[in-house]
Design a protein that fits this description.
Elements lengths: L1 E6 L5 H15 L3 E6 L11 E9 L2 E2 L1 H9 L8 E7 L7 H18 L3 E6 L8 H7 L12 H9 L2
Parallel strand pairs: 1-2, 1-3, 3-5, 5-6
Antiparallel strand pairs: 3-4
Helix pairs in contact: 1-5
Length: about 160
């Protein structure tokens, strides 16, 4: 099978996850390539498409949203979705609900077979007021990506 892992990334975190997913798929004997959505002009020729984006302000990046609505949703290949958020695992329940709503919205647009949230990475500690608003404990590591969870999800595809 030929897989495309199409992603948008601001800081490189989602790109690193997409590349790890592609590597795992290749290790099992399938073809896979991870590409930024800005480099994708044609989705034909792929047997399955995995789409990934960070979530900022409780929404995916605008260019990712447009790509999903205009290109990916029109593609007949099966699709899977992953979103990356530093707040999803440790944030307040109200933020988790907003993030979950965004994932559900996109999964419906794409008719995604599966959708998942993964923890993200930030470059420096959030300021105290931001930790308070979002409910992120002070001792939360800067990188909360769970590579085992990412690999487990990838194996299920």
């Amino acid at each position: 099978m030929d897989y495309l892992i199409a992603y948008s990334s601001k800081t490189g975190t989602t790109k690193e996850i997409a590349e790890r997913i592609a590597k795992m798929i290749e290790e099992r004997g399938d073809k896979a390539e991870a590409k930024p959505i800005s480099a994708i002009h044609d989705l034909s020729g792929y047997d399955r498409i995995i789409l990934g984006s960070p979530v900022n302000g409780m929404k995916v990046l605008p260019e990712f949203n447009a790509f999903c609505r205009e290109k990916a949703s029109a593609c007949n290949a099966p699709k899977d979705l992953f979103l990356v958020s530093y707040m999803f695992e440790n944030g307040r329940s109200m933020w988790k609900k907003a993030l979950q709503k965004e994932k559900t919205r996109l999964a419906e647009i794409l008719s995604a077979r599966s959708s998942e949230f993964f923890g993200g990475r930030i470059d420096k500690q959030l300021p105290g007021f931001a930790r308070l608003i979002f409910g992120i404990p002070r001792d939360t590591p800067l990188d909360i990506r769970n590579w085992v969870a990412i690999e487990t999800w990838t194996k299920s595809l």
